[in-house]
Model the fold of this input.
Amino acid sequence: MEDIIINIIAVGIPSATSVIVGFFNYKIASRNSAKHSILQLIMEDRMDWKDGKFPSNYQAVLHEYDIYTKAGGNSYVKERVEAYKAWYKGIQEQKAKEVRA
Done:
């Protein structure tokens, strides 16, 4: 019986540790992936706008931001997304004025 308990401990503790570490690694990887996607999408929209095209990544940015915040994202990306949303809203208002004129 003692051998069984020792074997359970010998296998159980490393297995549990692997699962826990794997979970945290997945969360960190998800957050980093979403962060890079957000920043890339914002940059693409700003470049498109400079080239005379209307930004097209708004929904994708918001989707990635949801993933980012669920994975424990920080305020740096939040600030970038809020600035992007304000910029995008300004572009929409500008385009609406041009259409009405």
